[in-house]
Amino acid sequence: MSVKTEEMVLNMGPQHPSTHGVLRLELTLDGEIITKVVPHIGYLHRCFEKHCEVMTYPQVIPYTDRMDYLAAMGNEFGYVIGVEKLLGIQVPERVEYIRVIMAELQRIASHLVAIGTYGADIGAFTPFLYCFRDRERILNLFEITCGARLLYNYIWIGGLSHDLHPDFIRLTKEFIREFKPNLKELNNILTYNKIFIDRTANVGILPLETAINFGITGPMLRASGLRWDLRKDDTYSVYNKFDFEIPVGKGKMGTVGDSWDRYYVRVLEMEESIKIIEQAIAQLPDGDVTSAIPKKIKPPVGHIYSRVENPRGELGYFIISDGSTSPFRVKVRAPSFVNLQIMDELCRGHLVADVIAILGSVDIVLGEVDR
Amino acid sequence: MKEYFNNIFTALFTIFVGMKVTLRHLFTPSVTIQYPDVKLPLPERERNRLYVNMDDCIGCDQCARACPVNCIEIETVKSLPGEDLGKTSNGKKKALWVTKFTIDFAKCCYCQLCVFPCPTECIYMTDVYEFSEYDRNNLIYDFATLTTEERIQKLENLDKHYHERETKKLGRI
Amino acid sequence: MMYDFLYELTGSSIIAGTIIALLPLFAFILPFALFAVLLERKVAGHMQDRLGPMRVGYHGILQTIADIIKLIQKEDIIARENDKLFFNIAPVLTFVGSYAAFAVIPFSSIFLGAKIDLGIFYIIAVTGLVVAGILMAGWASNNKYSLLGAMRSASQIISYEIPTILVVLSIVMMTGTMSLFDLSENQTGSFWNWYIFGGPSISIQKFLLIPFMFIGFIIIYISTLAEVNRTPFDIPEAESELVSGYHTEYSGMKFAMFFLAEYANMFAVSAIVATMFFGGYQSPFGYLGNSLNLVWLIPIEQFFWFIFKGIFFVFVQMWLRWTLPRLRVDQLMAASWKYLIPIAFVNLLIIGFITLI
Amino acid sequence: MKSFEEISELLKNNFSDIHFEFHPEAKFEPYILVPANKIDTVCLFLRDNNELYFDSLINLSAVDDFNGNKIKDDKGNEIMQGGTMSIYYHMESIKFRHKLLIKVILDRDNPSVNSVTSIWNCANWHEREAFDLFGINFNNHPDLRRILMPYDWEFGHPLRKDYQNPEFYQGMKVPY
């Protein structure tokens, strides 16, 4: 006579310390083993796309910051490239370089949050504070250039809102010099820690085919072994002028594509971003950043899909313009929205504690998922 | 068996390495400051509360149009031909009475889009960031300098003026 | 000792007994808990490049008193669905479990609760009560998360009881006595006579024992960490998954009881480890009292040394808490059954052979 | 790396019965117009053909073209009769690095199309979002329910151009 075991449904969220925002995961448990995960989203839906239809083109930029609030520069970058293609504007060289520097600084800041919260989810609270101490320095850099720390409205259509602050270059060099030893120290305390490895290696393995079929992009796809980065494969702005590698998951501590790989790819990406920033600062040309900003923005009728490599993956804007001063339709392909679909696939057969580890490695931001 | 001992060794080794890091941080100076007593100096491009210098404001409504959240409300009344409203700092002659100029700081998203189009640069961002209120309506700041009776009085002059012009036009035909 | 002295003083055994029973609680555990909570927050702060509590009193000294006052005036919520009886007993039981262990811990040669010669055996038996308290708390709060947390912590404490007992056995086998008082007395003289360095007798045995005593110390330290639910084994109150395990539903004074029990247990456990391996209240370099031949000074020195060792081990527990991530439940069980217990067995065997030589 | 013309050629001779409309000169992005009922067969071919090998669907966006005739309904606010809605499928081949845009036009009053979730799992939530915000229902979609709006939101589909906010939703005032 087999004992009738009834599956227990456990609701994790929407108010839960480690779901990175307002996400409700409905876990069906058989004992401690997960049989099904159903993510419920929509708690942070602010109808970004409906707003775009009543705003003029430059007014949409503060709204794009609020989607992935941890990588606001990247969001602006994507939208602005799309509208510039519509208008056919060519931006001065200096603006392109500053945009790349800002995007890469934002990538480091966003990865620091991802790594810090991932450590905190697994239980190591100290690296979280070390990461945030370094991130504060990047926010200070943003603050002296454009005045804001999180939502910048800095990259405009055709240029930038302010030129670089006089001692921005000096402070950035100082930050990079002090950040490198901190990164090594982070590896000592978290990356190679045996308990951290036990908790993350061979957990939530994402094979490459499922990753491509699910449309996963960004560090998650690279951790599964595919060298795919829009900065190299669909080059935009001046990324072709810098040489940097694309780190790929090699399964050092487990199999390729497990949570540890996703974490480690982000650590390596931070080192690559430092390289890009150093080269960009070295080759920074002079010029006026606000010269190409058009007074009246009325793009011709047409549609364009522009995409950018955000810290969480490929962020795409499908902009349809009907010739008036406000966009007819803006559809955003948010990387976290697409990456979150894989949660059910990854968490099956794992324990409750692993769901937190996997969700941390997927690194989603709910502002972007719900838009 | 080898893997068994390897596990033990790496476990202990990485624990001690981690402990060395935290011990070193026990003696490095902390980064936190005691906020209310010690305040960090803000950079000069800081974006906090808006301020409108009303003598320069010509009531052109550029900032209200540029605002993505429509938190600026401006109402103006045309001045009578004879009236002299004084000049803005850069010498431009003012032609409109600004009877209502309110900014709702509960809605404002501090994006600074209103500062750039202003022709006389009378709206700019200060570095005041401690202005929280208990009641949301207190966050609606009214910058207009005219007192309430003056506002009503301006409206009446304007209607009287239009009325006169109508009668004159009728009279002439 | 203390008891006979008090007995002559007061003349009646009941009064002496109650004073002895209450003395450790009010004289030591409560002030220690106040100090330990503040120490933990300050250590955590400075290890993370921040300052820890600075507002209440100079450099946050009165912070714990503020916490206690806050907890006392908080409303003590008992949910309608709770199993009232068990809900109220649970915090008391967990606190009693850890408080009772203080009865036999030798703070110094004269101050000792009860000089029974079954010292360690009594302690291990009494700390078993904590498991019952946690299970009751988990079941009585009638909430899915607490039930899971209680289940996990019960299995964790039981499976880490075994390595502790094995190491205790190896010590008892080596020294021949179970009474903590005799253990401390044997380790007199300089730190070289401590059991971690093979015990008082100068012989081949001593040098052979050193490595195995060191392994024994590491095993017992790790397993007592697990018994006290400290990171990396703090799964019952793993904030990220189970929203703080079995004491989710508790608030106010009952929560303070759990909190107090945790810190009392922490000190009890590090006191036992110090007594067994690091010479209890013996000073590493001989006594000031002897050199100045002030005989009454020695017990006070011993008390000081004992507190110093205890707090050092409590500091190491805190240090580990703010460095290491948390183990998963099955890894935790694997660590105990696959790694600690076999090594403890082998260690027991080898120490047995060495003592036979 | 196949150019837009080669892909169109390949499609034309593989599906002679389907009437495609090729727009190579469309502003900023050439696209192919595919009839609504054939979209899943075409997409399956595009993914499995080993010359094209479109293995990753980048984006699926629904657009309310709002080109019907406006009439006033009883409550005085205008709603749209007739007109079309379109869905844009951006897809890409990671192996051959070429991209393609496919457009499907549906009738606005009761838009329905076959779901491509069976071909690309990525389309699952995109289609649920299109259903939630536009009201396009996708046949044989695994679990078509609302994703961003509350599950019991019965005031229509927000991203339609003629959408009116309800006064109250479960006793809460909607426009603040």
Provide the CATH architecture of the largest domain in chain B.
2-Layer Sandwich
Look at the structure and give the mean pLDDT of chain B: 86
- Widest sheet of chain D: strand order? 1-2-7-6-3
* CATH topology tier name of the largest domain in chain B: Alpha-Beta Plaits
Please, how many helices of chain D? 3
Cα gyration radius of chain D (Å): 18 Å
Strand content of chain B is 5-15%
Topology diagram in text:
The complex is a heterotetramer of chains A (371), B (173), C (357) and D (176).
Chain B: H1 2-27, E1 50-52, H2 62-66, E2 72-78, E3 96-104, E4 123-125, E5 140-142, H3 148-172
Antiparallel strand pairs in B: 1-4, 2-3, 3-5
Chain C: H1 2-10, H2 13-47, H3 63-73, H4 84-100, H5 119-140, H6 144-175, H7 180-186, H8 204-227, H9 239-242, H10 253-277, H11 288-291, H12 297-321, H13 329-356
Helix pairs in contact in C: 1-2, 2-10, 2-12, 4-5, 4-10, 5-6, 6-8, 6-13, 8-10, 8-13, 10-12
Chain D: H1 4-14, E1 21-23, E2 31-33, H2 39-48, E3 56-64, E4 69-72, E5 78-81, E6 84-92, E7 99-107, E8 112-114, H3 123-134, E9 137-139, E10 168-169, E11 172-173
Parallel strand pairs in D: 2-7, 8-9
Antiparallel strand pairs in D: 1-2, 3-6, 4-5, 6-7, 10-11
Overview of the molecule:
The complex is a heterotetramer of chains A (371), B (173), C (357) and D (176). Chain A is of the alpha+beta class and 371 residues long. Helices cover 48% and strands 13% of the residues of chain A. The model of chain A has no long low-confidence stretch (mean pLDDT 90). Chain B has helices at residues 2-27, 62-66, 148-172, and strands at 50-52, 72-78, 96-104, 123-125, 140-142. A three-stranded antiparallel sheet of chain B has the order 2-3-5, covered by helices on one side. With 357 residues, chain C is mainly α. In chain C, helix 2 crosses helix 12, helix 6 (144-175) packs antiparallel against helix 8 and helix 8 runs antiparallel to helix 13 (329-356). The model of chain C has no long low-confidence stretch (mean pLDDT 84). Chain D has helices spanning 4-14, 39-48, 123-134, and strands spanning 21-23, 31-33, 56-64, 69-72, 78-81, 84-92, 99-107, 112-114, 137-139, 168-169, 172-173. Chain D is elongated. A five-stranded mixed sheet of chain D has the order 1-2-7-6-3, with helices on one face. Helices cover 19% and strands 29% of the residues of chain D. Chains B and C meet through helix 1 of B and helix 2 of C.
